Amino acid sequence: MTASPAPDAREAERAFRPRAARATSVGDLAAAAAERGVRCDVAGTASARVTGVCMDSRAALPGDLYAAVPGANRHGADFSAQAAAAGATAILTDAGGLDRARSAGLPVLVVDSVRDAVGELAALVYGTDDAAPRLFGVTGTNGKTTTTYFIRSLLRALGETTGLIGTIEIVAGDTRIPSVLTTPEAPQLHALLARMRESGVGAAAMEVSSHSIDYRRVAGLRFAVSGFTNLTQDHLDLHGGMDEYFHAKARLFEAGRSRRAVVTVDDAWGRRMAAASGAETWTLATADAPDEGSADWRVRGIGADGLGHRFELHGPDGAILRARTGLPGLFNVSNAALAVLMVHAGGAGLGDLQAALDAADPLTVSVPGRMQVVCERPAGIVDFAHNPDALERAIDAVRGAHPDARVIVVFGATGQRDATKRPVMGAVAARRADVVIVTDDDPHDEEPAGIRAAVLRGAADAIAAEGLSSTVVEEHPRARAIAAAAAIARPEDTVLVAGRGHEVWQEVRGVNLPLDDRVELRDALAARGFATIADPSDSAAGGARE
Ligand SMILES: CC(=O)N[C@H]1[C@@H](OP(=O)(O)OP(=O)(O)OC[C@H]2O[C@@H](n3ccc(=O)[nH]c3=O)[C@H](O)[C@@H]2O)O[C@H](CO)[C@@H](O)[C@@H]1O[C@H](C)C(=O)N[C@@H](C)C(=O)N[C@H](CCC(=O)O)C(=O)O
Ligand SMILES: Nc1ncnc2c1ncn2[C@@H]1O[C@H](COP(=O)(O)OP(=O)(O)OP(=O)(O)O)[C@@H](O)[C@H]1O
């Protein structure tokens, strides 16, 4: 067991501050915020000067406005003295935090909702409201990370200097760090954009999680283009139901938040999202759907090409774009098509786009832990699928062509998160795979045996009700489950290790244990004498790469 060296939120917050800071007085901030409809009362001296914004006292730097939010566990105002000791010059809080903030002896900006206000204030402090890099935001249950990597790669092929913000890493010019959140908190986002601007970044691709929309992390940001991948069951613990989950995502497409939108309309949720969008919207059909023909853009002519696919995009006035992606799975055609159209909607002309697609194969970028192949025969694949829809698609995507090919899937469900998806994932695996090895994901503080039992119950119920012939076993810890899968793999089989993708720490009762599925699978297959593929992005090779 090791103590946690996992990415640290505070370090991440400090790593991406702009080098040049301009000072704004508390009084001027309150006045500018009011002009944007955010009412701010000032308690204390209005002449104090602010050069940065933070939301965690442990990340405060001299000159910061410390945003003290009411949290699930504590009110941030409890940490006002720590922020002041670190050099913060003012505090932003709500009526509930006012007295505690005042006791730190700093001027206080009082607002109705700190989360609603902090994005706008950070935009003012960092000057990111109009001069930030062009932002390409991607939301949806699955495909956000992959699509942002595709967008960034395509923008680079078009000659742009780019940034990236998402689950795996944050990249701004020559600086990169592993991510803590998929979408950082608003103060960090605005600092990041200011830093990107300093580094000459012209465009950035960014994942926008539904949590971030609910928690107002994207407040004060304007997206040049926003894209929607899909909506399937996930995160119902936060949102309560699919309708609420839909409405959280829909807020990204409000007029004023996004200038343009590209919405995948392969199902009813997509069509509803397109109808709800207040931005100038293009619809994209990537799969056979009832009214697929009425979409503005359609994927046509999909054909197998190596591990991936080639395809065409057909648009208005006979426009056609030809593209390919080397990443396995038809869902990666959907992700790639969305990325191409978002870059087109962001201003790239059809001719330039086609030239970039032809010259650089930009949609064959390697995305860490997303359909990552560590061995070709047997196929050993590590993927991030951690909800029912993604798991089903991932299993289908990796099934080999040989008539005796089996899919052996290793996965578990996360502790303290949406428990309703556990039996559903068990049933999906029992239906689609030949051998199912149920193990642990990140149990967090929950008892792992109970999580496994819920997944196993779903699998057993599906087998009994549907007369399935799949084999289901329980094995833990996870490394032993991966070794068990490798031990029974025949050359024509596929071992799919799903759920944790690029992650290199497994959290068990507050302790982060080192665990990289790619390393475990590669080592287990190599031990049996199979030829494996090294990859510089995994933990055995030292981490993230270009
Ligand atoms: C459930 C959730 O989203 N919680 C977020 C929330 O934490 P919280 O309400 O528990 O905070 P708290 O512990 O009560 O503390 C209150 C405030 O005091 C501050 N504090 C606390 C201690 C201290 O010494 N000093 C200090 O300033 C905290 O930073 C916080 O602002 O506010 C914090 C920042 O203020 C967030 O960092 C934190 O995100 C946590 C880390 C998180 O894991 N969120 C996940 C669920 C998330 O957002 N995930 C999505 C992706 C989901 C997906 O697609 O899979 C994401 O975008 O990453
Ligand atoms: N368009 C898609 N439709 C369905 N499943 C997909 C799609 N794209 C990717 N997947 C599956 O979902 C997994 C996660 O993909 P990716 O990381 O790109 O999505 P994400 O939205 O960023 O996920 P998360 O929010 O959980 O980080 C992949 O490993 C793959 O199994």
UniProtKB/TrEMBL annotation:
<feature type="binding site">
    <location>
        <begin position="182"/>
        <end position="183"/>
    </location>
    <ligand>
        <name>UDP-N-acetyl-alpha-D-muramoyl-L-alanyl-D-glutamate</name>
    </ligand>
</feature>
<dbReference type="GO" id="GO:0008765">
    <property type="term" value="F:UDP-N-acetylmuramoylalanyl-D-glutamate-2,6-diaminopimelate ligase activity"/>
</dbReference>
<dbReference type="InterPro" id="IPR018109">
    <property type="entry name" value="Folylpolyglutamate_synth_CS"/>
</dbReference>
<dbReference type="InterPro" id="IPR036565">
    <property type="entry name" value="Mur-like_cat_sf"/>
</dbReference>
<feature type="domain" description="Mur ligase central">
    <location>
        <begin position="138"/>
        <end position="342"/>
    </location>
</feature>
<comment type="function">
    <text>Catalyzes the addition of an amino acid to the nucleotide precursor UDP-N-acetylmuramoyl-L-alanyl-D-glutamate (UMAG) in the biosynthesis of bacterial cell-wall peptidoglycan.</text>
</comment>
<feature type="binding site">
    <location>
        <position position="57"/>
    </location>
    <ligand>
        <name>UDP-N-acetyl-alpha-D-muramoyl-L-alanyl-D-glutamate</name>
    </ligand>
</feature>
<comment type="similarity">
    <text>Belongs to the MurCDEF family. MurE subfamily.</text>
</comment>
<feature type="binding site">
    <location>
        <position position="209"/>
    </location>
    <ligand>
        <name>UDP-N-acetyl-alpha-D-muramoyl-L-alanyl-D-glutamate</name>
    </ligand>
</feature>
<comment type="pathway">
    <text>Cell wall biogenesis; peptidoglycan biosynthesis.</text>
</comment>
<dbReference type="InterPro" id="IPR000713">
    <property type="entry name" value="Mur_ligase_N"/>
</dbReference>
<dbReference type="InterPro" id="IPR005761">
    <property type="entry name" value="UDP-N-AcMur-Glu-dNH2Pim_ligase"/>
</dbReference>
<dbReference type="Pfam" id="PF02875">
    <property type="entry name" value="Mur_ligase_C"/>
</dbReference>
<keyword id="KW-0547">Nucleotide-binding</keyword>
<keyword id="KW-0963">Cytoplasm</keyword>
<keyword id="KW-0067">ATP-binding</keyword>
<keyword id="KW-0961">Cell wall biogenesis/degradation</keyword>
<keyword id="KW-0460">Magnesium</keyword>
<feature type="domain" description="Mur ligase C-terminal">
    <location>
        <begin position="369"/>
        <end position="501"/>
    </location>
</feature>
<dbReference type="InterPro" id="IPR035911">
    <property type="entry name" value="MurE/MurF_N"/>
</dbReference>
<keyword id="KW-0133">Cell shape</keyword>
<protein>
    <recommendedName>
        <fullName>UDP-N-acetylmuramyl-tripeptide synthetase</fullName>
        <ecNumber>6.3.2.-</ecNumber>
    </recommendedName>
</protein>
<keyword id="KW-0132">Cell division</keyword>
<dbReference type="Pfam" id="PF08245">
    <property type="entry name" value="Mur_ligase_M"/>
</dbReference>
<dbReference type="InterPro" id="IPR036615">
    <property type="entry name" value="Mur_ligase_C_dom_sf"/>
</dbReference>
<dbReference type="InterPro" id="IPR013221">
    <property type="entry name" value="Mur_ligase_cen"/>
</dbReference>
<keyword id="KW-0436">Ligase</keyword>
<dbReference type="Pfam" id="PF01225">
    <property type="entry name" value="Mur_ligase"/>
</dbReference>
<feature type="binding site">
    <location>
        <begin position="140"/>
        <end position="146"/>
    </location>
    <ligand>
        <name>ATP</name>
    </ligand>
</feature>
<keyword id="KW-0131">Cell cycle</keyword>
<dbReference type="InterPro" id="IPR004101">
    <property type="entry name" value="Mur_ligase_C"/>
</dbReference>
<feature type="binding site">
    <location>
        <position position="217"/>
    </location>
    <ligand>
        <name>UDP-N-acetyl-alpha-D-muramoyl-L-alanyl-D-glutamate</name>
    </ligand>
</feature>
<keyword id="KW-0573">Peptidoglycan synthesis</keyword>
<feature type="modified residue" description="N6-carboxylysine">
    <location>
        <position position="249"/>
    </location>
</feature>
<feature type="domain" description="Mur ligase N-terminal catalytic">
    <location>
        <begin position="50"/>
        <end position="125"/>
    </location>
</feature>
